[in-house]
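Lab manual, section 2.4: Encoding a predicted structure.

Procedure: take the sequence of the chain (127 residues), apply the prediction step described in section 2.3, and record the output as structure tokens. A sample record is shown.
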Amino acid sequence: MSHAHQVTVKIVKASDLNKKDLITQNDVYVDIWADGGFFGKQHTTRVGGSDPVFNQTFKFDYNDHELHIDVRDKDVVGSDGIGKATIKLDDAEFPVGKTVVKVVDIYAGMIDFTSNGKVTLEITRHK
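Recorded output:
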């Protein structure tokens, strides 16, 4: 059985997001979770069009060394997907105790390799 670790993630901002609404600005929110499921999922919302600033911090327990983000545009009914990304929390890129700034491209789907924008994160792994 694998041992649970903790990770602190600050969602700093998103940039160059594809516009999903025809008339209004994007009402962007970010779902973020660890362990490949929605247990412990957190989300943050900002009205900011294509370049919202969040500056919100979350802490997660994780076992599988993956962090998932899903950027969406909230609508009156439902939401539109802007893009997703998965980040491997490996020892080489994210040493324990060191805060690493990571800018990730987000993609609409697994076969669509056109970036729909970027998300800037500050990630710190803990023992």
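Check your result against the sample. The beta strands are 5-15, 27-34, 42-47, 53-62, 66-74, 79-88, 99-107, 115-126.
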